[in-house]
Amino acid sequence: MDRRSSLKNILLGTVAGGLAVHGCTTREAAEAAEQLGAKTGFGYGRVPEELEALEKLNAETFLNPHERETIEVLAELILPPDEKFGGPLDAGVPDFIEFMAKDYPDFQPTLRGGLMWLDHKSNTEFGMEFKSTPEAQQKSLLDGIAYYDAKVPMDEHPLEIQFFNLVRNLTVCGYYTSKAGIEDLGYKGNMPNVWDGVPQDVLDKHGLAYEPEWLEKCVDQSQRGVIAEWDEDGNLLT
Amino acid sequence: MQIKEQPTVYDAIIVGSGAGGGMATKVLADAGLKVAVVEAGPFFDPALPEHQTQLKWPYESPRRGAATVRPFGDFDAAYGGWEIKGQPYTQKNGTRFDWFRSQMLGGRTNHWGRISLRFGPKDFKHKDVDGLGENWPIGYEDIKPYYDRVDKLLGVFGSKENLPNDPDGFFLPPPKPRLHELYYIKGARKAGVPVFPSRLSMLTKKINNERGVCFYCGQCSRACQVYADFSAGTCLIFPAQKSRGQVDLFVNSMVREVTTDQEGKATGVSYINKEDRKEYQLRGKVVILAASACSSARILLNSKSAQHPNGLGNSSDLVGKYLHDSTGSSRAAFIPALMNRELYNEDGVGGMHVYSPWWLDNKDLDFPRGYHIEVWGGIGMPNYGFGFNPNEFNSFFGLKTGGYGDQLRKDVKKYYGAVMGFGGRGESIARKDNYCEIDPTTVDEFGIPVLRFHYNWSDYERNQAKHMQMTFEEIIHQMGGEPLGSTPGAERDYGLETPGRIIHEVGTTRMGDDPATSVTNRYQQLHDADNVFIADAGPFVSQADKNCTWTILALSMRASEYIVEQLKQQNI
């Protein structure tokens, strides 16, 4: 279903927004926001203060080129690229990690300290920085920090475990919240549709069924466009 | 600096454009009156593309929807939050109350959960049952006709169930339960907890030609561009602007105080225009405060004059007292039966399709009053936080957690949709020593003295939260699930949220027939100034185990019609 045309069908009447008496409130502010949004590329309902803050964050750089390259190597080890959907680099994961480090500065010492730890360990064991060692050596190093005991709170684990956990979290999250990642995951929503219950084959598979008396209360989707009318006891007539 | 006055004398000045202020605006405009609506935040209309967050994808936000700026995530519709820059509030004696403010047209109704429950007969007279708190001066029968009209005017889905303290209304039909909700129904019933279709103010069916019908994106917290969910801006203010009366909207306008004359009657309000930072005055025959229970209390307490030396309406010294929020305690669970989900669009409405209203008799329990249970879960849109600790549930099967490589992709898909959450939302007992007052040493960036909070929970609320946790664990067990994390014990108040966190602030200007023990009368009219009314949740005497919005709307409709009548009769 085409999102724009179906939305247009669903919108049953055009509703004029109200006018405000005071100041440069409605149109001008909205236009200014739209212009700023277009300029910054953040067209998702930001207020001017939020756009300014986003601009400011974008103007800063946290990861230096070496750190960024190391993050890129790590991300592709964490989620190796898939033939159909690509991998973390295609999904913009390094940009997301860079942004989150600035947006949530608590991440910074863990990220930066962890990257230093990684290179130190790699230099000690293999005489080379992590990003330049062969993949087999990279993996043997990761095998020592990639697993954790879930019963122990994360902040009680050694820094290198916390570090890898953070990079893994941001990589997996960044990938599965990207366009390709959402497709890979198989999420089907975020578009106009009509919910009419769990598909029958799914109910069957789970050994579940809708109770007739419950279903009787539920919306008849063929009548959703008919204006509701009730009798005086609140029984729906339409 | 000279205060700038306007020549217009409004029939009424309405402070705040949320549920209470929105309804007052609609009723007064429908009666042909000339009203000024003064809103502290900017204009907002979710139909404007530049305001929309609905139907955006996580990758349109560079933080993928994280809550680093907006407390409920980057796509949440509420402007504001627990802290607002330049507008502090303070705490007293080491106690804590977290205050969520949303300054924008429509206020917090733009993002709220739309859980629209009527209070029941017992809720208005609960002191008669357990001797605690105070009875309301009105009963269910007084407000029932207004609930009925609110249902029809704004739309709420639900089902007729004939429950003794959860009255039925004029319901739109509810949506069918989702898969995880079918599991909940089964598990909860085995645990002895009844389940019913939820009651939310979203249009599953058309109610008029102005508003669209729900298209099931599950994003009501982002505010609906076709106005299929109830928000005060889209469903009350905008229609009021097209109604018989005159509605002048003053946005970005922060009210400082209600001005009064020699007789102590209100003459209007003074406000600061946030854009030029200058003070202005509006004049009106009536002032209706609907700025939120705490903000309205603040305005009253800051409205000191020779006639009202203790603050307007505060001869009883009760303005700000009896502040109370709902109790809340939550738990999440891993439900193995929901692993390896078949994938289809189950976004549904923006909230639960089923819920459990309070079902027990307190005489066998160690706490008064009840709570309802809200549920969440499903194969929703991934957002910031999705994929964190992607295979931690491996530990339930004795498998390793963590790792990297292709296995992670399989783990993510295996556990997608296998988590459910349960929230108890209950009634606390209103107490005089839980209050907000003016902090004598702190002002905001507009020079207006700010609120200072004093709030403690008692064992009533703690024991209730303990019961919630026991109930959740029993339901989870009956669903074949595993509760996540350890059971919150006494050291964590059984998971009881900090006061204010449920965002149901009520009680600061409670109603009553006796001016010595209440701030407003049964029509929400100040005992001390008959042309000042409170249309938010301030006049609530008690909160009930329900959410407050539907009652704010019904009470505001009732008070506003009383105001129209009184103006006609020239009594005020």
Give a structural overview.
The complex is a heterodimer of chains A (238) and B (572). Chain A contains 11 helices and 1 strand; from the N terminus they run H-H-H-H-H-H-H-E-H-H-H-H. Chain A has 238 residues and is mainly α. In chain A, helix 2 (27-40) runs parallel beside helix 3 (48-59) and helix 6 (107-126) crosses helix 8. Chain A starts with a helix and ends in a 23-residue tail after the last helix. With 572 residues, chain B is an alpha/beta fold. Chain B has 10 helices and 19 strands. Chain B has helices at residues 19-30, 121-124, 126-130, 140-154, 179-190, 232-241, 293-302, 406-415, 459-478, 549-568, and strands at residues 4-15, 34-38, 80-81, 90-91, 101-102, 196-197, 246-250, 253-260, 266-273, 278-289, 327-334, 354-355, 371-377, 401-402, 419-426, 435-443, 449-454, 482-483, 532-534. In chain B, the strands form 5 sheets. In chain B, strands 1, 2, 7, 8, 9, 10 and 19 form a 7-stranded mixed sheet that branches. In chain B, a hairpin with a 5-residue loop joins strand 16 and strand 17 (449-454). In chain B, helix 4 packs across helix 10 (549-568) and helix 5 crosses helix 9. At the A-B interface, helix 1, helix 2, helix 3, helix 5 and strand 1 of A face helix 4, helix 5, helix 6, strand 7 and strand 14 of B. Strand 1 (147-148) of chain A pairs antiparallel with strand 14 of chain B.
Q: Point out poorly predicted stretches of chain B.
A: none
- Biggest interface between protein chains, with counts per chain? A-B, 108 and 120 residues
Termini separation of chain B comes to: 32 Å
Largest sheet data of chain A: none
**Gross geometry of chain B:** globular
Rg from alpha-carbon coordinates of chain B: 24 Å
| Class of secondary structure makeup of chain B | alpha/beta
Helix/strand-derived category of chain A reads mainly alpha
Which percent bin holds the helix content of chain B?
10-25%
Number of helices of chain A: 11
Low-confidence stretches of chain A: 1-26
Strand content of chain A: under 5%
Mean pLDDT of chain B: 97
| Helical amount of chain A | 40-55%
Overall, the morphology of chain A is elongated
Element-level helix/strand string of chain A: HHHHHHHEHHHH
